[in-house]
Design brief:
Elements (H helix, E strand, L loop, with lengths): L1 H16 L3 E5 L5 H10 L3 E5 L3 H8 L10 H9 L3 E4 L10 E4 L14 H11 L6 E5 L7 H11 L9 E5 L18 E5 L2 H12 L5 E4 L2 H32 L3 H8 L23 H11 L5 H27 L8 E5 L14 H11 L3 E5 L5 E4 L2 E4 L5 H5 L3 E4 L8 H6 L4 E3 L14 E3 L1
Helix pairs in contact: 1-7, 5-6, 8-10, 8-11, 11-12
């Protein structure tokens, strides 16, 4: 019992005095902003980033994540508070290890935890008494206890006695200027009371409000429910868009009027599909776990079907527009504006715009794209480069499809120089001239 108290007390002392060495595994959209916030309050942070180009950039003080301020990263690196490595050689030196690695789906929409398992094995090989391990990657309820814990205890150390283990799901909203790592409430669930105490103490040094929950499983379910909530409501407005198309109504007018109600409703908007690292993925983690328990999540499955259907609907409506213009789809020239999954970001993971491009190309259309944030992309054999947005490029197209509503594009100018614009994001809401050349989703 004395050994238990000593390990916990020593780690809590290091956390409170901010002398603990913090390891952050994965310096992407979640990991790098978190590493910067920890370093800003005085912790020494050692990042483990297996992409050598990213690690080199961090060590030169060069930023590559929009939610991180360039000057803050440079200063922290110069002060020696933030450094990156490409392997786990120094894992035993870390007092706290925060895991921020991808948790994608397989092509069959089942969880792919290869990155979490690989990192956990690397940590287990170097695990020592007195360390806290925190998983921030979004996953299904049970991952921390059922997958990570046995691997870590395979080291011969015991959780709650020798080391501590928590799940604290990331809540990053890339590009959000109001809510950041620091002022977004942090949920923490431990595999036991000692782990929870240490985890809450660690996150409380950085995040303004920490929400403790009774277990790691609860914390895991919190995150997948949050994103499932969004996925279901997006599916609802997407289905409304499909219905309004049949009825000849403007879905944007319907929604804008509906959202004037000051209670009992929350704004969600339709689009060409869903993208990013959360909404297209997380609900399927919950759906998969439910099937293990012989429980069918009908609502979630249906929402996924509707959202995955939207790129097909965009293609079908684009071809209707081209037919009205007298252009065979197989001979059409189409410009897609925006391939990032979200406005004013460079992230194109799971982007519905890329799905739309593939569908149009499969029918013979000649497709180009412009995105000021994504100069080029390569996804599963499809490689393209952004074209400069000029009046000549617009005039040469049979159809321009607005797939991502980046705020820096002058949509009135786009409409003025285009034969026809298919707006899937209502980006042209403020355009007055040439509305007869605009078709909304």
């Amino acid at each position: 019992m004395i050994e238990l108290i000593d390990h916990k007390a020593e780690l809590l002392r290091k956390i409170r005095e901010r002398t603990a060495l913090v390891g952050v595994v994965g310096l992407g959209y979640v990991g790098l902003p978190f590493a910067v916030e920890k370093a800003k309050v005085g912790f020494r942070v050692l990042g483990v980033e297996q992409n050598p180009l990213r690690a080199e950039k961090v060590n030169r003080g060069e930023n590559y994540i929009g939610d991180v301020k360039d000057e803050e990263l440079r200063e922290l690196v110069a002060r020696g508070l933030l450094h990156a490595e490409t392997d786990f050689r120094r894992a035993a030196e870390m007092d706290v290890i925060v895991i921020c690695v991808p948790t994608p789906l397989t092509k069959n929409l089942t969880p792919d935890l290869q990155y979490v398992e690989r990192v956990t094995r690397e940590i287990a090989a170097r695990l020592r008494p007195g360390q806290l391990v925190s998983l921030e990657s979004t996953t299904y309820p049970g991952t921390t206890e059922e997958i990570m814990l046995p691997i870590l205890e395979g080291s011969g150390l015991k959780v709650e006695r020798d080391f501590f283990l928590v799940h604290s799901p990331e809540r990053v909203d890339p590009g959000n200027k109001r809510y950041t790592t620091k002022n977004t409430c942090k949920v923490v669930g431990g595999v036991g009371p000692n782990s929870l105490e240490v985890g809450v103490a660690f996150y409380s040094q950085t995040v303004e409000r920490v929400i403790p929950v009774s277990s790691a499983k609860v914390a895991e379910l919190v995150k997948v429910f949050e994103n499932t909530f969004r996925a279901v409501n997006i599916a609802l407005v997407n289905e409304l868009a499909l219905l309004c198309d049949r009825m000849g109504l403007d879905v944007w007018e319907v929604l804008e009027a509906a959202f004037t109600k000051p209670f009992g409703i929350m704004p969600f908007w339709p689009g060409p599909g869903v993208g990013g690292h959360c909404i297209p993925v997380d609900p399927h983690y919950l759906e998969w776990k439910a099937k293990e328990l012989n429980f069918n999540t009908h609502f979630i499955a249906l929402a996924g079907e509707i959202n995955r259907r939207m790129p097909e609907f965009v293609r079908e409506k684009a071809f209707r527009i081209l037919s009205r213009l007298g252009v065979p789809p197989s001979q059409a020239k189409v410009l897609v504006l925006g391939v990032a999954y979200k406005r004013d970001l460079d992230d194109y993971r799971e982007s519905p715009a890329i799905a739309v491009i593939r569908l149009l190309q499969a029918d013979g259309a000649k497709v180009t794209y412009h995105d000021p944030y994504v100069p080029s992309f390569r996804v599963e054999g499809l490689a393209m480069a952004s074209q400069p947005l000029t009046a000549e490029l617009l005039a040469a197209q049979d159809l321009v499809i607005i797939a991502t509503d980046h705020s820096g594009i002058d949509y009135a100018w786009v409409v003025a120089h285009s034969r026809h614009v298919f707006d899937t994001r209502n980006a042209t809401r403020g355009v007055r001239e040439g509305r007869e050349r605009i078709t909304l989703l």
